Amino acid sequence: MKIYVTEDYQSMSRKAANILSAQIILKPTSVLGLATGSTPVGMYKQLVIWYEKGDLDFAGVKTVNLDEYVGLEPTHEQSYRYYMQHNLFDHVNVNPANTNVPDGLAPDPKAECEWYNQVIRQMGGIDIQVLGMGHNGHIGFNEPGEAFELETHVVDLSERTIQANARFFSSSDEVPRQAMTMGIKSIMMARKILLMVSGEDKAEAVKNAFTGPVTPHMPASILQLHPYVTLVGDRPALSKLLEA
Ligand code: GLP
Predict the structure, then answer these.
(1) Whole-angstrom Cα distance, residue 173 to residue 96?
(2) Active-site residue, selected from the candidate residues 143, 149, 151, 234
(3) Is 226 noted as a catalytic residue in this protein?
(4) Could you confirm whether 165 is annotated as catalytic?
(5) Residue 216 pLDDT > 90
(6) Of the candidates 152, 139, 165, which has an alpha carbon nearest to the alpha carbon of residue 101?
């Protein structure tokens, strides 16, 4: 695993944007696995700036997002489709038909997950998967549990995740209780992983994920087994890992 330690959120964002740009420049038809949450917002901002400068071209790129809340329409401000449109897709020349996020309003979420697995296969797999990480070590919405879930599936969100994400909603009652997420196998099949972490509140989880056992109780720990992981984090988030 390659680790980049940066001084703050801004330089973490810039480093991650550099890595993603390198991918797009070297392979203009890349399949990008994308993530939401507060962590990658600055990276997307930087990518848009470089696109506007003419340094990046998304015309050949395809994207596939990790997850989506069940029950939120794509125009809902907290849906991950809305997030992607707002933070990236609406500002660059990616073909909208080549952007994929599970449909939160799909009448049969299980069937939607099946379809999503097909989409990923038809694209020929993911070249680079961007990940953030929850405080309990979740990646995408793969919550700690007894077993690693394989492909895209419907998940009941843990109380901790509901509380952590409540800050984006007017109250925790409004946070959807379920989501659709790529599974651990879908993530591990990506050719490269770019994991971004920021803030001291993630430090314990980062340390446990990379120095503890590989276990479904700490979903991010599976990344220890991936052959090509780049971890980009600011010093507060990496502090405990670096001490270990
Ligand atoms: C959400 C998302 C994850 C994300 C995590 C951390 O639950 N499903 O993909 O990595 O939260 O979010 P943040 O970056 O806001 O800390």
Answers:
(1) 32
(2) 143
(3) no
(4) no
(5) yes
(6) 152
